[in-house]
Amino acid sequence: MKKIYLICCLAVFFGIAGGISFFLIRDANAVIPANVSLINQNGETYNFGKDKTKLKLIEFIYTQCPDICPTTTQKMVDLKKDLVKSGVFGKDIEFITITIDPYRDTPEILQVYMKGFGINNDNHWMFLTGEKKNIKRDQSYINRVTDALQFQYKDPGNGQFVHSTFIYLVDQNNKFTAKFPMGKGFNKQDVYDKIIEKIR
Fold this sequence. Notes:
The chain is α/β, with parallel strands linked by helices. It is built from 5 helices and 9 strands. The chain has helices at 2-28, 68-85, 107-116, 135-148, 188-199, and strands at 37-39, 45-47, 55-61, 93-99, 125-128, 153-154, 162-163, 166-170, 176-181. The chain has a 5-stranded mixed beta sheet. Helix 2 packs across helix 5. The longest helix has 27 residues, at 2-28. The radius of gyration is 19 Å and the shape is globular. Residues 8-26 have low confidence and may be disordered. Cu cation binds at residues 65, 69, 163.
């Protein structure tokens, strides 16, 4: 009886360990396709394969989100201040916020969202969406980014998206480096330390 119990325990242990290993390997090999292009808050094209000089901290939002998205954006604003003081923001790292609701979140709406947080409209924090005349194509491009980083989301039909609660750090080649909790779980110091570690 003890032998059967031990075998069952070992089977459960190895099953759990195998599952954890699968997810760790999957994340470690995640890469955003270099040929994905979207438009930013100014209607200009942003291509993920063009700039290979900076780390990217990637946030997924929708502007009508009532809680976790704006909380995360505000925490990123605070993080940006620390990175600016360190002299690395814009030089070694940029922020990218991608809407998961490109049908509603036009470049104009994204600019309003930015102003609400006092975010400068510059080339160091991009807010990305789809182009109206190519919205279905660009929605598929957004999905290629979310799929690469295993960010899950769904619109149940009322415009209030259900989505994953992580932001992502990728390297100069768009390869996954780390992920961090969104919302209240976002620890500014942890994210800052990981960014500085990767830069050095």
